[in-house]
Amino acid sequence: MKTNTISALSRLLAGIGAAALVVSLFVPLWRIELDAPQYPEGLALQIFPHKLGGDVEIINGLNHYIGMQTLHAENFIEFTVLPYIISFFALLFASVALLGKRKWLNTVFFTFVVFGVVAMVDFWRWEYNYGHELDPNAAIKVPGMAYQPPLIGFKQLLNFGAYSIPDTGGWLFLLAGALLLAAVLKEGGFFKRFSKKRTVPAAVSALLIVVLSGCGPKGPEPIAYNSDKCDHCRMSIADPRFAAEMMTVKGRVYKFDDLSCLISYMGEHPEPAAKSTWVATYGGDHALIATDHAVFVKAEKFNSPMRGNLAACADGTEAQALAAEKEGTVVNWNELVKEP
What is the pTM assigned to this prediction? Predict the structure, then answer.
C-alpha cells in the first residue's frame, strides 16, 4: 500500500536538485555562439539569469549594420524576474526534500515542467522578434532575409554560423529536472518492473543501446550536387566522385568539390576544429565515408575539379586496382593531411 511519504533516496535527489538550481543563479544559463571567417575564434553571447555576458558590444555593433535590435539587459523583464523564479523553485525542491510528501513531489515536478515549457516558448518569441523586427534604414538589407537564431542547435545566418546550446546553468537546470523526474518515477513504482532478475539485463541492454546510439558520431549531410557550393573555392559541387565534407565540433557542416579543397581548408582554418571528415568514394554509388576508413589513390589521370587528383576507395583491394588502372599511388589519410 502506498503512503504519502517518499523514500530517503527521493528526498536526496530533490535536495541535490535544489542545490543545482542555486548554483545556476550564478553561472550563464544559455549561450549563442557566432562563427565567421572574419572572427576565427568566434563570438559568444552568454545569457545569465540576471544579465548578458560575452561579446555583447561586438555583436551589437554587427547587428547595427543589418538593422537588428541592440541587446541591453534592462530591456528584458526576464532578467528582473528570472532570479526570483529560480530561487522559488530551489525552495520548492528543498521543501520536497524536507517534507518528504508524495503529492508535493508530484506538484512541484509538474509546475517545474510547465515553467520549463513556458520559458522556452518565451525564449523562442524573443529570438523571433529579435531576428524579424529589422530597421528598414539599415546599411545592409537582404530582401526576405530574417536573422532569427536557432532555439537549439545550428543555423546559418548569411556568413555567420549560429550555434545555440545550454550553458553551465542550463545543464544544471536540466539536471535538477531529471533528478526530480527520477524521484517521481521511483515513487510511482516505475523501477519495480526491473526488479526481477530476468528483466534487469534486458533493461540494461536497452538503455545501453539508446545511450550509444545517441552518443555516436553524426553521419554526413547529403550533398546537393550542382547546387551546393564548395566552402573553399566557392565552385559548384558537380562531380560526386571527388566530393568531401567536414563537420566541426559545434555541428557546422562544410562541403567541398575536391578532396584537396578539404585538406587546404583544414590547413588554413585551424578554427573551427573538425570533428568528422568524409569523402565520396570514386566508384559505386559515391557514398560518403569517413576519411580515416578510406584508402586514397593519387594519380594525374583523375583530372579532378580543382586538380587535387585524389580519389577515395572503401578498401585497400579496390585502391590497389584503381592505382594500377590510373598509374597512381596508394596513400592514407594521415599522409595526405601531413603533406605541406
Answer: 0.61
pLDDT digits (tens, 9 = 90+) for 162-200: 889 999 999 999 999 999 999 999 888 877 766 555 554
Question: Phi, psi (5° rounding) for residue 44?
Answer: -135, 135
SS (H, E, C) 59-77: HHHHHHHHCCCCCCHHHCC
- Choosing from 162, 195, 215, the residue where a domain stops is 215
Domain residues for 332? 244-338
Q: Which three cell numbers stand for residue 63?
A: 547587428
Residues of the chain with pLDDT under 70: 1-2, 40-41, 193-218, 250-251, 270-274, 339-340
DSSP per-residue codes, 237-264: ---TTS-EEEEETTS-EEEESSHHHHHH
SS3 283: coil
Residue 125: which of 144, 148, 145, 153 has the closest Cα?
148
Give residue 215's pLDDT: 47
Domain check: are 22 and 124 in the same one?
yes
Our count of domains for the chain comes to 2
Contact, 299 vs 326, CB < 8 A?
Answer: yes
296 pairs with which residues across the strands?
312, 331
Closest by alpha carbon to 326, among 282, 265, 284? 282
Separation of alpha carbons 70 and 75, rounded Å: 10
For residues 173 and 20, is the Cβ–Cβ distance under 8 A? Answer: yes
Indicate whether 32 and 125 sit together in one domain.
Answer: yes
CB 159 within 8 A of CB 42: no
- The pLDDT value recorded for residue 207 is 47
Does residue 256 contact residue 247 with C-beta atoms inside 8 Å?
no
